[in-house]
Amino acid sequence: ATAVPFHGRHQAGIATPLQACGHLIAFDLRPDADRRAAAALMRRWSQAAEAMTAGRPPGDDDQIALDAGPSSLTVTFGFGRTFFAKTGLESRLPAALVEIPPFSADALDRTRSGGDLWIQIGADDPLVAVHALRVLQRAASGTAEARWQMNGFNRAPGATRRPMTVRNLMGQIDGTNNPRPSDTGFDAKIFVSRTTGPEAWMNGGSYAVVRRIRMLLDTWERLPTARQERVIGRRKDSGAPLSGGTETTPVNLSATGPDGTLAVPGDAHVRVAAPESNGGATLLRRGFSYHDGHRADGAPDAGLLFIAWQADPTTGFIQVQRKLDGADGLTRFIRHESSAVFAVPGGATAPGDYVGRALL
Ligand code: HEM
């Protein structure tokens, strides 16, 4: 029943440990909702999140989570580009909150993309996570309406004998080469700092790029394991790079095999995505798997709710995705089906404070 502090310089749910259950929900403001209504909503949401993350029932409780502790609940709030014009705050739209450009392999569903407001909910217990979703959705009533909602999961705590990096639905160990909060320069790459002027409200914040990426699992699962490993550039069982060592051994992109060819193939995902191949571009990947039944064509509607965190999407996600587009061997096995980008401000720093107060 671990509690993750709600208050802090950064919102929880970015650099805090990944949970087993995730809900992403985007809202659009109602036509009559102005800046004051938005501020009141952020205040209600922050109060409810503060209570629930501490394991206390919120004001308007349906008792879904009544018997459980906080279960590592985190609630993270963000603002989409469209929020600013609707609230008369155009002058405060951060320059970094750019539109995500189209990519050649996109198959985006506009109804499941974008949104004025966004909430990321993570918890290690499914009822605690759904409870937060319902409470926050009710608190929006009259001000904002749900635009899209997605549900995801990761491995539950205690499922492995020792804590391990999670696996995705392709079976790969996913997250190994993420930047770590203890790395030098982590904060500067992931969080906004020392910004002045109309964007000062983003200090301590970060930008989230959200992509619903369906995996073409029927095609993927027909590939022999050795081929699958060459698509990523790592071993499937251990997560070790094909250049040798164990999961945590640094990838050696110039290593060659006995036949003189590159150990990590030229189109391997880890080669094309690596900071070394992208002028140092770094992002923190903190996503959830999803499996929402089957599509009309019989294929599983399953994949990754990919969430990338960075101080600037242009030099983070956009730069890396531009490189991956066309050059990444993984592209043939995935479809990006929705896209959104949100400015996620710093955290509420004390009881009574609320997320977004410096903007609103
Ligand atoms: C690394 C899977 C999409 C960026 C990895 C790794 C796996 C993986 C298995 C190696 C382990 C690790 O370091 O985490 C996937 C799957 C995807 C996907 C299954 C889609 C369904 C993306 C996208 C981006 C991205 C869209 C960015 C635009 C990265 C980066 C690394 C990485 C930066 C670390 C590379 C390094 O420094 O070694 N991915 N990935 N991935 N991926 Fe992805």
Explain this structure:
This protein has 360 residues and is an alpha+beta fold. The protein has one domain. It is 21% helix and 20% strand. The protein contains 8 helices and 9 strands. The chain has helices spanning 35-53, 81-86, 126-140, 186-190, 217-220, 225-232, 269-273, 314-327; strands at residues 21-29, 74-79, 117-123, 144-153, 206-215, 284-285, 288-294, 300-310, 334-344. The strands form 2 sheets. Strands 5, 6, 7, 8 and 9 form a 5-stranded antiparallel β-sheet that branches. Strands 2-3-1-4 form a 4-stranded antiparallel β-sheet. A hairpin with a 5-residue loop joins strand 7 (288-294) and strand 8 (300-310). Helix 1 packs antiparallel against helix 3 (126-140). The longest helix has 19 residues, at 35-53. The chain is globular. The model has no long low-confidence stretch (mean pLDDT 97). Bound molecules: protoporphyrin IX containing FE (HEM). Protoporphyrin IX containing FE binds at residues 168, 170, 172, 174-177, 213, 215, 232, 234, 251, 269-270, 273-275, 283, 285, 303-304, 306, 317, 320-321, 324, 334. Protoporphyrin IX containing FE is lined by residues 168, 170, 172, 174-177, 213, 215, 232, 234, 251, 269-270, 273-275, 283, 285, 303-304, 306, 317, 320-321, 324, 334.
